[in-house]
Amino acid sequence: RLSGAERDMVRRLDHWRSGVGLMNGPSDWLLGKGLGRLPSQYARAVADGEFSGAVQWQAAGRSAARSGGQVVLFGPRSNPDVAGMFALTQRVETTPGDRYRVAMRLRVVVPTRLDISLCERHLLYERDCLVTWGTVRPVRTQDGWQTLSLSLRGQPLDADPWYGPRLKLFSVSVASVASRVEIDSLQLLAPDGTNLLANGNFADGLAHWLGVAQSYFDPWHLDNFALEVLVERGLAGLLPLAALFAIALWQLLGASAKPQSLAPYFAAAMLGVLLVGLVSSVADVPRVAFLFYLLLLASLRTGQHGHGSMVDCRPYVMASVCRER
Predict the structure, then answer these.
(1) Are 94 and 168 in contact (CB under 8 A)?
(2) DSSP letter string over 86-140?
(3) Whose CB among 24, 48, 112, 246 lies 3.0–4.6 Å from 179's, allowing a Cys bridge?
(4) 3-state SS string over 190-246?
(5) Distance between CA atoms of 269 and 253, rounded to whole angstroms?
(6) Helix 38-45 and helix 5-20: axis angle, to 10°?
């Protein structure tokens, strides 16, 4: 990571320029492109900035084997370098062994490569995987649907160690450009024949499923918190947020905050957000964004308790039981 720091910084600068380049005219600089619109704007306007894929649920058509729903999984629009870097995923519980099979009912209109895997994986990095891949070709039937049964191959999955489980992730990717696959049903069959997937018929929409971008994230965030706020909310959003941030830090680090037992910890957390936000994204995940704004409001509130007032926070309990006195 350290050896690639210079190359990484050059790439980030190019990425930041592409993001700022989305701003067209005074209205964009004042009000931004709109909250949550950065990904679609970036994918449409930046060369080689397209999405690596997408997933969409749709109601089952007349040609489906049952009522309910289907999933449409897309590959990239035109860039083969990012093909296969978007997957439909689900966490599963497995047993040791390597005799896993995938059964699926699907439809394609052009030859489409599918990559399917079952990996020991937490967030980014894989340990052992069972995989299969191949090109699915259209069939000449009235409705175009076909059924596939594929065996997964690779290093057998070990039993979980005594000190904790190894999380397993099942994923399906479209590894062809300008391609899509409609999936009517999907099963991951264990060695004993048990189906390990929940909602494999998609009757409950995308419940239990998650579309995941892998290795390539450019359209989704700018790797800089301030620039993301600027592009989406303009100066009208960035300047008030910066002012609130500065006021919170001033109150936390100022003389009035010295009696506060929580002030140093809130200040450290706020500075941590600021530091990470210089080169990464801290608000593109809703839960993280919520925690950031909650932290900001709590910091403003804590900083107002100066001048003799104090928050008593016992070291062995959570802040929710702290009392003001």
Answers:
(1) yes
(2) EEEEEEE---SBS--EEEEEEE-SS-EEEEEEEEEESSS-EEEEEEEEEEE----
(3) 112
(4) CCCCCECCCCCCCCCCCCCCEEEECCCCHHHCCCCHHHHHHHHHHHHHHHHHHHHHH
(5) 12
(6) 100
Q: Give Cα separations from 278 to 224, 226, 251, 270 (angstroms).
A: 5, 8, 22, 13
For the segment 224-261, what is each residue's pLDDT rounded down to a tens digit?
999 999 999 999 999 999 999 999 888 888 755 556 67
Average pLDDT of every residue of the chain? 87
- Give one DSSP letter per residue of 270-290, joined into a string: HHHHHHHHTTS-SSSSHHHHH
* Residues facing residue 218 across a β-bridge: none
Comparing 188 with 123, the larger pLDDT belongs to 188
How many Cα atoms within 13 Å fall on the side-chain side of residue 323? Answer: 1
> Torsion-angle region of residue 151: left (phi > 0), alpha (psi -120 to 50) or beta?
beta
For 86-143, the pLDDT digits (tens) are 999 999 998 777 789 999 999 999 999 999 999 999 888 888 899 999 999 999 888 8
Question: Is residue 29 packed enough to be buried (19+ CB in 10 Å), middle (13-18) or exposed (0-12)?
Answer: middle
The pTM score is 0.80
Q: Which two tokens stand for residue 64?
A: 């489906």
Q: Of 3-12, 44-53, 59-68, which has the strongest mean pLDDT?
A: 44-53
Taking 70 as the threshold, does the pLDDT of residue 39 lie above it? yes
Cα 248 to chain centroid, rounded: 29
Phi, psi values for residue 60, rounded to 5° = -65, 135
**How do strand 180-189 and strand 69-74 relate by DSSP bridges?**
antiparallel
In whole angstroms, give the CA distance from residue 51 to residue 35: 18
What are the tokens at 82?
A: 């990012």
**What is d(CA 224, CA 12) in angstroms, rounded to the nearest whole number?**
9
Does 314 have pLDDT greater than 60? Answer: no
